[in-house]
Specification:
The protein contains three helices and five strands, in the order E-E-E-E-H-E-H-H. By secondary structure, the chain is an alpha+beta fold. The chain has a five-stranded mixed beta sheet. This is N-acetyltransferase. InterPro entries: Acyl_CoA_acyltransferase, Gcn5-rel_NAT, GNAT_dom, GNAT_YJDJ. It comes from Leuconostoc gelidum subsp. gelidum.
Length: about 90
């Protein structure tokens, strides 16, 4: 499991005091939905599934809080489109 740090609006991974991966989100829909705005992974770490683990971390938090997720960033939109069964219950549907 990755040792992601968390602060309001983002989960991230630091290496040598540098953020090397992060997923950022805001709260919308009267606090009932996380809108994931961006997912960034340092090129040296790409291909290791880190972005997916970041997404899964936010999905788990939203699930625990009975929230939904709106995919705004291209990576999350693609993940939701490619895995509809995995994300259909958590996806925000206005």
């Amino acid at each position: 499991m990755m040792d992601f740090q968390h602060e309001p609006g983002r989960y991230f991974l630091q290496k040598n005091d540098k953020t090397v991966a992060e997923i950022t989100y805001t709260t919308i829909n009267n606090g009932q939905t996380y809108a994931i705005n961006a997912t960034n992974v340092d090129p040296s770490l790409r291909g290791q599934g880190i972005a997916a683990k970041l997404l899964d971390t936010v999905v788990a938090e939203a699930h625990d809080k009975h929230m939904t997720i709106k995919a705004v960033c291209p990576y999350v939109k693609k993940a939701f489109a490619n895995n509809p069964t995995k994300y259909q219950k958590i996806e925000y549907k206005p």
